[in-house]
Amino acid sequence: MRVLITGSGGQVGLELISFLLGRDHDVIASDVAPKPDACTHDVAWEHLDVTQPDEIREVIERVRPGAIYHLAAILSARGEQIPHVTYEINQTGTRNMLEACRELDVQKFIFTSTIAAFGPGLPDPVPNEVSMRPTTMYGITKVAGELLGEYYRQKWGLDFRGVRFPGLINAGVPGGGTSDYALHMYTSGMKDGRYESFCHADTRIPLMYMPDAIRALVEVAEAPREKLRRSIYNIAAFSPTAGQIAESVAQAIPGVDLTFKSDPLRQAILDSWPRALDDSAAREEWGWRPQYDLDGMTADMVLQVRQMIADGRL
Ligand code: AKB
């Protein structure tokens, strides 16, 4: 099946392209930005601004995807700097994409939601279905995207499905998230020998290594519809404190200097998110299982980041 990916140049998009091409999918990448050097694949790359309905229709009519992975979004920390732009891209952009699918008869829409869609004061771990009252523009637009997609599914039969990602870690350049402190402990820790996290050492949020996240997204996309009793699934891997991540990194990179200095704005965002997610629905309905724990991720990250530094990519 031909798949169209929006927001292909981001942290998730570049990894999703590699994964899908490796499985012989017919992939059309798209982004508002040109193909970045980090994308070394020979993949079709369309200019696509999700705030522009005419442009969306033109691309979809031409490439005729059977499914769309909708990744285009501004993340939480960046989103608080530019909330109005975030609303346009995340909220209006998602509506535009869903509407184009309805008009042009695209069958399947895969949505990436997030732990940021939840708000404070919830049970630990947070169940799949719970009252969602996020405090960031990013979180608000992701809840709205979940609800809107569900509406298109019920009213017009669009096969809408997706996952709520934890904070994602990979050997790459992050894009404005509040969970990025975890990634920087590895990348800056190895490149510069030090990193000061912008949160307290006891900050704890759900995290996941990117290979698990990409596999989850493709597994939910390809699960038989009759197995799915809902549209959006919590997925979980591990929930270490920031201090525990620092310990894991320090064991793998002796001498690295990892310190903590909380930034009030980003700390407040992190404190509003779940400590852990209950992913039993994903496990039961489509067999989700993470493969990486914290130390497994650290072992692989160290190899990946070392290679990036050696190649001059970091
Ligand atoms: C962010 O930090 O905004 C994202 C997320 C948790 O969705 N990584």
Question: How would you characterize this protein structure?
Answer:
The protein has 314 residues and is of the alpha/beta class. The chain folds into two domains: 2-167 and 208-234, Rossmann fold (3-Layer(aba) Sandwich); 169-206 and 238-275 and 292-311, Alpha-Beta Complex (UDP-galactose 4-epimerase, domain 1), CATH 3.90.25. Helices cover 45% and strands 16% of the residues. It is built from eleven helices and eleven strands. The strands form three sheets. Strands 3-2-1-4-5-6-10 form a seven-stranded parallel β-sheet, with helices on both faces. Strands 7-9 form a two-stranded parallel sheet. It has a two-stranded parallel ribbon with strand order 8-11. Helix 1 (11-22) links the parallel strand 1 (2-6) and strand 2 (26-31). Helix 1 packs across helix 7 (210-222), helix 4 (83-104) packs parallel to helix 5 and helix 8 packs across helix 11. The radius of gyration is 19 Å and the shape is globular. The mean pLDDT is 97. The structure holds 2-amino-3-ketobutyric acid. 2-amino-3-ketobutyric acid (AKB) binds at residues 75-76, 114-116, 138, 165, 167-168, 177-179.
List the helices and strands and how they pair.
Blueprint: E1 2-6, H1 11-22, E2 26-31, E3 44-47, H2 53-63, E4 67-70, H3 76-81, H4 83-104, E5 108-114, H5 137-156, E6 159-165, E7 167-169, H6 180-192, E8 194-197, E9 207-209, H7 210-222, E10 232-234, H8 242-252, E11 257-260, H9 264-272, H10 280-286, H11 294-310
Parallel strand pairs: 1-2, 1-4, 2-3, 4-5, 5-6, 6-10, 7-9, 8-11
Helix pairs in contact: 1-7, 2-4, 4-5, 6-8, 6-11, 8-11
The structure holds 2-amino-3-ketobutyric acid.
The site of 2-amino-3-ketobutyric acid (AKB) has 12 residues, from strand 7.
